[in-house]
């Protein structure tokens, strides 16, 4: 049995290539993060990880990804796909399945470097993991959420067919902040006009589907 079958998995869209994180790619991702992924006066994340001191942020990124890899279990996983354009890492798209064989449900999260935003890449990379989850893993639903002051993320969800599913309130930078919860059923996905290319799923199916 391959000890790390995720290394074979690749998702390809017209402009992007998504692969589960590896150490070399993570060093590129750190550069993307340090270059900036959101304005300093904004916080799009439920966990305020980008507020870490700059001299610690890179190490925090590596430690987080290593800890996620170490916790992979059959049917209970989080795959952090490094998103590449023209061979260079430009962001990350996460796909999560908790007790996936029973729930058939996934959730997503993502970010792009500031210089790569505004070109529709966020929609393309989210569509990639949704197509992978629905068509190759047999997922039934997908969930997401975004703060109400994050119109870009909410717009991606609308484009792909998500519907509102209530709200949640949390403390963000010491203040009350509201998130919109979103849910997408497999049959409601607004499919793109391109086909997703997938290789390597056979080797890691036992981890993903249990």
UniProtKB/TrEMBL annotation:
Signal sequence bounds: none
Domain N-acetyltransferase: 16-187
InterPro entries referenced in this protein's UniProt entry, alphabetically: Acyl_CoA_acyltransferase, GNAT_dom, Ribosomal_N-acetyltransferase
GO molecular function: protein N-terminal-serine acetyltransferase activity; protein-N-terminal-alanine acetyltransferase activity
UniProt keywords, alphabetically: Transferase
Gene Ontology terms: cellular component: cytoplasm
SUPFAM superfamilies referenced in this protein's UniProt entry, alphabetically: Acyl-CoA N-acyltransferases (Nat)
Pfam families named in the record: Acetyltransf_3 (PF13302)
Protein's UniProt name: RimJ/RimL family protein N-acetyltransferase
